[in-house]
From TrEMBL:
It is found in: Cytoplasm. Keywords: Cytoplasm, Lipid A biosynthesis, Lipid biosynthesis, Lipid metabolism, Lyase. This is 3-hydroxyacyl-[acyl-carrier-protein] dehydratase FabZ. Coiled coil: none annotated. One of its GO terms (cellular component) is membrane. The keyword Lipid biosynthesis applies. NCBIfam families: fabZ, PRK00006.1. Belongs to the thioester dehydratase family. FabZ subfamily. The active site is at H49. GO terms for biological process: fatty acid biosynthetic process; lipid A biosynthetic process. The gene is fabZ. CDD domains: FabZ (cd01288).
């Protein structure tokens, strides 16, 4: 299953500049997802990180990866309208920088879920090379219950 940006915005509550997934290219709800983030020089973080050597901040790489997992978890109708909140991160590794012009391809899969709590594992690749990986603990909540 492929989702374009319009479908993604029906699932995730994020909006630019914090919407960090451009397309879902594979989706098996509540199991796995693959998504892409096209990194461009026009993004606001590159004005200061770093002016002469732009590098995507690690926290934004992690957020982009988590959002792919969020689409996977929030796609089912019973989860629509919920927000996936970070509960923690483990095994975070950055292997090489992500820079303007790169396409970050994230593969996310569900490790476990119990009720509204769970864990995802995500790997982010640029040109087929591992750029980052992490395990994300999450809780899904209705936005009015935050």
């Amino acid at each position: 299953m492929v989702l374009d940006i319009n479908e993604i915005q029906k699932i995730l509550p994020h909006r630019p500049p914090m919407l960090l997934v451009d397309r879902i290219i594979e989706l098996d709800p509540m199991k796995s997802a693959t998504g892409i983030k096209n990194v461009t020089m026009m993004e606001p973080q590159f004005r200061g990180h770093f002016p002469d050597h732009p590098i995507m901040p690690g926290v934004l790489i992690l957020e982009a990866m988590a959002q792919v997992g969020g689409v996977m978890m929030l796609y089912p109708e019973e989860n629509r309208g919920k927000i996936a909140l970070f509960g923690g991160m483990e095994n975070v590794k950055f292997k090489h920088p992500v820079v303007p012009g790169d396409q970050l391809v994230t593969k996310s899969h569900l490790v476990r879920v119990r009720g509204d709590f769970g864990m995802l594992h995500c790997d982010g690749y640029v040109d087929g090379k591992l750029a980052a990986s992490a395990d994300f603990k999450f809780a899904m909540r209705k936005s009015e219950n935050l």
